[in-house]
Amino acid sequence: MIISELTLVTDAGIDLKPPPYALNHKDTLEYHWGKHHKGYVNNLNKQIEGTELDGMSLENIILASYNKGDVLPAFNNAAQVWNHDLLWESMKPGGGGGGKPSGELLELINRDFGSFESLIHEFTLAATTQFGSGWAWLVYNDKKLVLGYHVGRQLIIVYSFCYLGFK
Ligand SMILES: [Fe+2]
User: Which top-rank group of organisms is this from (predicted)?
Assistant: First the structure.
């Protein structure tokens, strides 16, 4: 499968974003983009067409369909579209991403975790000690950097907005 031959735009409100770089590991990356990601976008668009969710941003669809924890059917597909968007933006071709941050972020890390190395240790522990699949994340909440994690399809966006909006 060649990425440029895939249809990027669907009929309903949410578009499949093109990957931000060439997918060089075709079997794995094209599977996640050309099948998973595209499938979630298409399924979400079928679910929201003609509903009050149609026309909303992806983030607002997630928040509306999360429905304060009593999730609506569109939530899982919307969550997976958002997860895959985040996945593509979180990687860099050739393994050249990552590295020690600088400036204000490094100052905050040093203040709230003691050191960058300590953050990496705690982050790795949070990410690798979950059962099954899940997420670990670094968030800025209440003027402090903190680690968060959750198993499965839950999203940081839900918790972030909950922390900010429904506390
Ligand atoms: Fe995937």
Answer: Eukaryota
HSE-CB of 119 using CA atoms within 13 angstroms? 22
Report the separation in Å between the CA atom of 87 and the middle of ligand 1, taken as the mean of its atom positions: 9
* Cα 137 to ligand 1 centroid, rounded to whole Å: 18
CA–CA separation, 147 and 149 (whole Å) = 7
Distance from the alpha carbon of residue 33 to the mean position of ligand 1, in angstroms: 7
| Tens-digit pLDDT profile for residues 107-142 | 999 999 999 999 999 998 888 887 776 778 888 888
pLDDT at 161: 44
Number of Cβ atoms within 10 Å of the Cβ of 106: 14
Please, which residues have CB within 8 angstroms of residue 48's CB and are 6 or more apart in sequence?
Answer: 12, 13, 14, 54, 56, 61, 74
- pTM for this predicted structure: 0.70
CA of 135 to the centre of ligand 1 (A): 14
Whether the CB-CB separation of 47 and 76 falls below 8 Å is answered with no
